[in-house]
Design brief:
heterotrimer, A mainly alpha (479), B mainly alpha (123), C mainly alpha (517), A: 479 residues, mainly alpha, two-stranded antiparallel ribbon, C: 517 residues
């Protein structure tokens, strides 16, 4: 490896190094506060390094890794999400767990795994990243081991993730059998020499889709989502919803772009069915839920369905559309889970929808933040979600996928109902009897709230004046 | 690829799979069918080195055993990486040496963490 | 720039009211009132101004917004927009006054919502970029949702949901149509833009055009509303607070009619002709159906709500007659309906405040106790049934005259609808103010605030009935333009488009100097 390789890899090396460093800090028995602040700093440094190293793009470390505008953006997005999760974690874990410190080590490792996914150009690095991410998540999900749902969620995730990894591996093996290579671009080249897509290849692709679909929680592999969102600690749920999915989606997109799967009608059909079913199932299942975390879980299924509307056409603007949508969705979701985290108490998370009753009249700022994020998820103008949805629709329509676009529109109308429901409850007049006053750590509480308010401003800014970001995304290419 | 590998080339593997499976199924079915079966009470109790079993097998035992065992496995398995490295030591040269030192250093840090967390203290 | 300011002061005033509402309860009311007055005065200056120029477009403001998509921040007004904008600010002032003492909790947030609805509506009347138009179209929904959902009466949450989901679903279909038009135009010409003036006259295959106009029309006729998409309206109207009903009836419904005239017809003329007979049929059905249902209601606000369905039927019939006469009638109808129905909602609100019910059967014989309210109510019920001398008469007459030439049978049935409107209007008076006296509790007559609201509305409705010329003059260019599209050959569209562009192009300099003066 040359020096420039190290330079390009520096965000990932920093993440890996940080995990070891934090481990040592824990070993010398520093307080939770110091651990949290230093991990925050380390996240900030690695985030900065993604910006810093942008000057050598595009760059390859053959055969495993690739750095281009898209992967760099996704890496930054993942690290940013983890950073926000990290800010939210202190207040949440400090009052619940006697040893919350190892949590930060795991957070670094999971972030690293997700970043490896985002830059991988090869089955080996894909699988490596996936496993780093997943193994860390097993522990994170079950971190509050005193809770019933936590253990259940951890075990569920363990079994299902192992199962889906097996599918993924088998799929990769079949594709390797057919093409004799595991590098994405080489697979694409092999595939271009054949007229008809071989049966074994399509079988392998289907099996890979099972594995990837599980991670992204798209139909029909969405069953685990609600339980695990509910059972995980709220900051971890935020991580699962954002950082862990971002890397997977990026690698999926890269793979399909490399093999030009968009030229094969079979693949288009499969993906369209998956997209349509995800949009409808996600939104329909969310309608009857009374648990905010479960609602957000089902809504995430729908949102990844929306993403596929931009994904499938693979035209000039779909890369931008996907990047923008991921950006707006991540920020919005982080904000929503941030509120859940801040409202959580020692015994339970603030997941029951009744907890939000008349919130506006008690915590107007938090309620406004949550309202903004709900509106953004629903795709109402003035918020980032609207521009994102608009972008996705534009990408879909430009490719001529009218059916997908219409389903997107109709299912997002269904989605409106449950987003509005949360908002309505927050603004309802009945006074909530118990006002739970925080907190042992006013300083951190204020810092977390401030972070959420800033994110809300970003949501609004992206909704009102998205041009700067669009220009930035327009400069990206995928090599 | 000079010799395009087709699915036909993998036929022997499928045969092997079938033979292996077939052997298991065949012998198990056969012994089941032709073996004599005499069930007595003694034969149905759990066998434990010829003496009578005492108590329930699912007894709680100290987590320390498990912890030590898992730590042993963790560090033991890392040695696997060293065999291929040692075999190719000459080709790797100085770089290889440095890399292995980094690897060992990281392991050592983990070991320090374990000791500091008192995972190996018995009390 | 004045157009931007109109929106900015509304939004800024809303934010200010929200923030200051935390400390002082009456401050938000004054802020809102002041904001709207300022805007209203600004608009009046434009009225005076428009007589000095003969151009179609009075003010034009354009700046880049999201250039990557070809989205501009393009606001412009012609006569039609000016009329509707003035109406918006006028009704806005009255709505603040009408809820002056009604709303006691969360005053700041209430006025925030109110002003943002008005900002959204004003934006809709000014936007000349389809993306911007959709943007404002949606901006007005959320605050309206809150207005109904928080300050409404018993069944408010249901009504708010229904309102929101109907309008949002139809709006999203419009967004699809907008995107479709965007790509078709972009693929035809190579320039991807949402600019209204450039999209005019886009060559679209007829099948596609039918689908696209359907996307636009669905959004507009849900707002209007036209049967069978009217079912949100009675619920929303009856559950909303007085100011909410006032804005819904007087302004929100008008955005639908405006959208059809401004966007659906000029963008897809041929498709509009294909759809016209069916929409006129639905319009007539709406006239009669609304009137019959209005007669059957016992809830005063629901009754008035159904009269809106009936009146809006006239609007649809008038628009799709494609004649200048009928379109002038439509413009008149938009204003007079806003005034008369708005006034009836205010009256219903006044009665509800005193009686705590909207049930007509619990009312009666109020003439003795509330003579002032009685007289004023008489004016507006008469207006609603189309008494000559009041504005509604002019509007309906013009519509019927215009429609007569294009479709005889439709016109005959629409005229029959007028008879029904007489029946339900008289029933209101009969039930509420005459007949045996209901209840024994003393009821106070109007106070100065209520009196001033209703008096100003009365003045306007009589003025429109006696001297409608300013409105007709102002709306003429737009109306003439629409008629030209449909009466002339296909090239008329193209020519008109050019005409429009030239006028807008030469306009800004002149106008901006005037504004900055």
């Amino acid at each position: 490896m040359s020096a420039s390789d190290f330079y390009a890899l520096s965000p990932l090396l920093l993440l890996a190094g940080s995990s070891v460093l934090i481990m040592l800090l824990i070993a010398v028995r520093l307080s939770h506060r110091i651990i949290q602040i230093s991990s925050l700093l380390l996240f900030a440094i690695s985030l900065y390094s993604t910006v810093f190293t942008a000057d050598i793009l595009p760059y390859r470390i053959p055969p495993l890794l690739i750095f281009d505008g898209f992967s760099s953006f996704i890496t930054a997005l993942i690290i940013f999400s983890s950073l926000v999760v990290n800010i939210l974690s202190y207040v949440y874990f400090d009052e619940k767990e006697e040893s919350p410190k190892e949590y930060y080590v795991l957070l670094f490792l999971c972030t690293l795994g997700s970043c490896v996914l985002a830059i991988s150009n090869h089955f080996v690095s894909l699988f490596l990243g996936l496993e780093i991410l997943t193994v860390g998540l097993y522990a994170l999900i079950a971190y509050l081991r005193g809770r019933n749902h936590s253990i259940e969620a951890g075990v569920k995730y363990l079994v299902l993730a192992a199962f889906s990894s097996a599918f993924l591996l088998f799929g990769m093996a079949l594709i390797y059998l057919e093409t004799g290579t595991m590098n994405f671009s080489e697979i694409g080249e092999r595939l271009r020499t054949v007229d008809n897509i071989p049966v074994i290849f399509i079988t392998g692709l289907g099996m890979m889709l099972v594995g990837v679909g599980f991670k992204l929680a798209i139909f029909p592999f969405h069953m685990w989502t609600a339980d695990i969102y509910q059972g995980s600690p709220a900051p971890v749920t935020a991580f699962i919803a954002t950082a862990s999915k971002g890397g997977m989606f990026a690698v999926l997109f890269r793979f399909f772009a490399s093999i030009q799967g968009f030229n094969f009608p079979e693949i288009i059909t499969i993906l369209s069915v998956v997209a349509i079913a995800s949009m409808l199932v996600g939104n329909l299942l969310a309608l009857r839920q009374n648990n905010v975390k479960r609602i957000l879980a089902y809504s995430s299924i729908a949102h990844f369905g929306y993403l596929f509307v931009a994904f499938i056409p693979r035209n000039a603007i779909s890369l931008e559309a996907i990047s923008f949508y991921l950006l707006s969705y991540f920020i919005t979701t982080l904000t929503a889970f941030g509120i859940v985290t801040l409202l959580s108490v020692r015994e339970t998370d603030a997941e029951d929808i009744g907890r939000y009753k008349a919130l506006f009249w008690q915590h107007p700022i938090l309620a406004c933040v949550l309202t903004a994020s709900m509106l953004s998820l629903a795709g109402i103008p003035l918020t980032a979600g609207f521009i994102g949805k608009f972008y996705v629709l534009a990408a879909g329509l430009q490719g001529g996928f009218w059916l997908l676009a219409i389903i997107l529109v109709l299912s997002s109308v269904i989605g409106l109902y449950y987003y509005l429901r949360i908002i309505t409850i927050m603004f309802s007049k009945e006074e909530h009897a118990e006002i739970i006053e925080k907190k042992a750590h006013p300083g951190f509480y204020v810092a977390s709230s401030a972070a959420l308010v800033i994110l809300t401003f970003v949501i609004l800014l992206l909704g009102i004046y998205p041009d700067a970001v669009i220009k930035l995304l327009g400069g990206f290419s995928m090599s | 690829m000079e010799a395009q590998s087709t699915s036909l080339n993998y036929l022997p593997i499928i045969f092997q799979l079938l033979v292996a499976l077939g052997f298991v199924v065949f012998t198990m079915t056969l012994t089941h069918l032709i073996g004599p079966k005499r069930k007595t009470a003694d034969k149905l109790v759990a066998f434990e080195s010829g003496i009578k079993s005492i108590g329930n097998a699912r007894q709680p035992f100290s987590i320390k055993y498990f912890l030590v065992a898992i730590l042993f496995v963790l560090f033991d398995v890392e040695v696997i990486f060293m065999y291929p490295w040692a075999v190719n030591f000459r080709e790797f040269g100085l770089n290889g040496l440095i890399e292995m030192f980094i690897f060992m250093g990281t392991l050592l840090l983990g070991f320090i963490y374990i000791i500091k967390k008192r995972a190996l203290d018995w009390d | 720039m004045i157009l931007v300011w109109l929106i900015l002061i509304l939004m800024g005033g809303g934010l200010l009211a929200f923030m200051l509402g935390q400390w002082n309860k009456s401050l938000p009311r004054w802020i809102a009132l002041f904001t709207l007055f300022a805007g209203f005065l600004g608009l009046l200056s434009l009225w005076i101004e428009q007589y000095r120029f003969t151009n179609t477009w009075l003010v034009n403001y354009k700046t880049e917004w999201i250039p990557s998509f070809g989205i501009t921040f393009h606001l412009a007004i012609d006569g039609l927009s000016l009329i509707l904008l003035t109406l918006t600010f006028f009704i806005g002032i009255l709505s603040i006054l009408s809820s002056w003492s009604d709303i006691r909790d969360r005053v700041g947030f209430y006025h925030f919502n109110l002003l943002w609805i008005l900002a959204g509506i004003s934006g809709v009347f000014m936007a000349m970029d389809l993306f911007l138009f959709y943007f404002f179209w949606e901006v007005m929904l959320i605050p309206m949702y809150f207005l109904i959902g928080i300050w409404g009466s018993e069944n408010r949450v249901y009504a708010a949901y229904k309102f929101f989901i109907f309008t949002q679903a139809s709006g999203l279909l419009m967004l699809l149509a907008i995107l479709g038009l965007y790509f078709i135009h972009g693929n035809n010409t190579g320039t991807f833009t949402y600019n209204y003036f450039e999209l005019l006259g886009t060559v679209i295959p007829e099948g596609t055009a039918n689908w696209l106009i359907a996307g636009f029309l669905i959004a507009f006729i849900v707002k209007l509303p036209l049967i069978p998409f009217h079912s949100w309206l009675p619920d929303a109207h009856s559950e909303a607070p007085t100011a909410g009903s006032l804005i819904l009836a007087a302004l929100l419904l008008k955005t639908g009619a405006y959208g059809i005239m401004r966007f659906a017809l000029p963008l897809f003329p041929q498709a509009a002709i294909n759809f016209a007979p069916w929409l006129m049929l639905l319009g007539v059905l709406g006239i009669i159906y609304g009137a019959i249902l209005a007669y059957a209601q016992t809830d005063l606000k629901r009754l008035v709500a159904y009269t809106s369905v009936s009146h809006m039927g006239f609007v649809v019939v008038g628009i799709f007659a494609f004649s200048e006469l009928a379109l002038q009638g439509v413009v008149m109808q938009l204003i007079t309906h806003a005034i008369s129905t708005g006034a009836l909602f205010v009256i219903a609100g006044i009665l509800k405040e005193r009686l705590h019910t909207r049930d007509i059967s619990a009312m009666g014989g109020f003439w003795q106790q509330m003579p002032k309210l009685g007289v004023l109510s008489m004016v507006f019920t008469m207006a609603s049934l189309g008494l000559p001398g009041l504005g509604n008469f002019i509007a309906e007459l013009l519509i019927l005259l215009g429609a007569f030439r294009s479709n005889l049978w439709i016109t005959i049935f629409a005229t029959a609808g007028l008879v029904f409107s007489a029946i339900y209007s008289l029933r209101i008076m009969q039930k509420v103010f005459f007949g045996p006296k209901a209840g024994s509790a003393p009821i106070s007559d109007l106070n100065w605030r209520e009196l001033s609201i209703l008096t100003s509305l009365t003045i306007v409705i009589i003025w429109l009935g006696v001297y409608p010329q300013p409105v007709i003059h102002t709306a003429k260019p737009m109306v003439k333009y629409i008629e030209n599209i449909f009466s002339g050959d296909a090239s008329a569209v193209k020519n008109n488009k050019l005409l429009y562009q030239m006028k807008t192009a030469e306009q800004p300099n002149k106008k901006e100097t005037y504004v900055s003066k």
